[in-house]
Design goal:
By secondary structure, this protein is an alpha/beta fold. Helices cover 42% and strands 14% of the residues. It has a 6-stranded parallel β-sheet with strand order 2-1-3-4-5-11, sandwiched between helices. Helix 7 links the parallel strand 3 and strand 4. The longest helix has 17 residues. The N and C termini lie far apart (65 Å).
């Protein structure tokens, strides 16, 4: 049976370097790391994970607490987390907090009791109990997708990673207002989430950039699900002056919005332009195809793992917040032709985009 010494000799490195690669305790140059991994594969080396965890007090496992796992966006995040964790020799323990603050704290405690080395969490809209638990136990944690506010009198304690929210929403609004829409409705997510607040801020910036007033009646909370979005869309359509265009803030709410439109015999884009802040695999199969903002779900998941491993290797380094860019995906649901290329960015103020 091959030993760590055999691996080091085969790769031409020290035993300490092999240990760093296996345990993630220090950054190793990519070429060196690959040499070690190749040696492990060639020699069939299998580290004694249980013995190593007793020595290092680590289990090579990461706890992942994410609600709405059935949502395609969070499924992509999960895939990114899993792939990056596996690449670095970590396994995942998964829990669904159901966006409930009390249940959130309980599942994180259960994962902690399973001796995970660190946590990756998409926090709820009221994460106070969660933050208190993580702080009290000094559990290395990365927040993803939804950011947690830092008190004004203290330095950030947790690493965080999410997509850009405001600027892509401004791009969607520019697209719609360039097409002549002056009443744009927004079916947004659960109140209290940073993603909700930032997308509303982008919506308002987009209105101001087009010289349009902000009408609170055109913003309705869909509570991040089809049922809530259907009710919210119905309320917008019932206004005396309903919107001529609609933005939904995630893919699940798009389903609810489409149900509301169908229930009233309305079609896209003839009766209402529609676009979504959240692309999904079958958006181009809708008729017409859905114009959307594509979030980098897999990259968000992978970046969360990298931040967590950096934290484990250097517990005292300053906390970081990483924001990843999104992509504008132009299809036909706003009434303009599909340009057959991805990543197109409409230029505000330059006339209709078609």
């Amino acid at each position: 049976m091959a030993t760590m010494t055999d691996v080091a000799r085969h790769a031409g490195v020290s035993v300490a370097t092999v240990s760093h690669v296996l345990n993630g305790t220090r950054v190793v140059r990519p070429a060196t790391r690959q040499s070690v991994l190749d040696a492990i594969e060639t020699l069939g080396y299998s580290p004694n994970t249980l013995a190593r965890s007793l020595v290092t007090a680590r289990t090579r496992s990461i706890g992942l607490a994410v609600s709405a796992i059935s949502n395609p966006y969070f499924t992509e995040i999960l895939q990114g987390v899993e792939a990056c964790a596996l690449e670095h020799g970590y396994s995942l323990l998964l829990a669904d907090p159901h966006d409930d603050p009390e249940h959130e704290r309980k599942v994180v405690q259960l994962l902690h009791e399973r001796r995970v080395d660190g946590m990756i969490v998409a926090p709820s809209a009221d994460p106070g109990a969660l933050v208190a638990y993580l702080t009290r136990h000094e559990l290395p944690t990365v927040f993803l997708d939804r950011l947690v506010d830092t008190p004004a009198d203290s330095a950030p304690r947790f690493d965080q990673v999410c997509a850009e929210n405001a600027e892509p929403m401004v791009r969607l609004m520019a697209h719609l207002t360039d097409l002549g829409h002056k009443r744009v409705g927004l079916v947004t997510g659960r109140p209290g989430l940073s993603s909700t607040a930032e997308r509303i801020a982008g919506y308002r910036i987009g209105l101001a950039a087009a010289g349009l007033p902000h009408d609170e009646r055109l913003v309705a909370h869909g509570d991040a699900g089809p049922e809530g979005a259907e009710r919210a869309t119905a309320a917008l359509l019932a206004l005396a002056a309903p919107p001529t265009a609609l933005v939904t803030a995630d893919n699940a709410m798009t389903i609810g919005a489409l149900r509301a439109l169908r229930g009233r015999g309305l079609t896209v884009p003839d009766d209402l332009a529609l676009c979504c802040f959240d692309d999904f695999a079958w958006a181009d199969l809708l008729t017409p195809g859905l114009t959307a903002i594509a979030q980098p779900g897999r990259d968000i998941g992978a970046q969360a793992v990298r931040l967590l491993l950096e934290r484990l290797a250097d517990p005292d380094r300053p906390a970081r917040t990483v924001r990843l860019p999104c992509t504008f995906v132009h299809r036909e649901s706003c009434g303009c032709a599909d340009q057959k290329h991805r990543g197109h960015t409409p230029q505000s103020g330059k006339g209709p985009v078609s």
